[in-house]
Write a structure and sequence with these properties.
single chain, 157 residues, 9 helices, 59% helix
Length: 157
Amino acid sequence: MLCYILLSGFPPFNGETDAEIMKKVRAGKYSFDAKHWNSISDSAKDFIRQMLTFDQDRRPTAEQLLLHPWIADQINTVDESVCISSLDNLKNFKAGVAMKQSTYAFIASQLVTKQERYRLAKVFKSMDKNGDGKLSMDEVKEGYADHYGRLISDKEV
């Protein structure tokens, strides 16, 4: 996903809600149709396709991906215009709150077990005093004190 963002300046899976984004992630629906992809090589697109293979049994390992022709070619050549275009796209990329939340939710869903997710959801709900699905700074500080017995600063939050 990061390589896609680095080359294009926007995420492969986008949507209005976490559910919509996760649906696209599970379906593996992304495209190279935007004008940003016109200057990107077919080899780079193949590399990204392989990296974004949803089925982990079919997805190449990091070691295999490092042997991909596009990576091997990049070791000796860098197209300055593509780099400048990609950097400009990254500067313009504004990962909104929804995208950040979706990314964190996706990462968290991949790193924890079902039991851990249940426990974390329970802690989150208990900290979300107003029930809006978001934690304010005060809710985090109060919840941290309640659940972990320690006060934390605004900076830590």
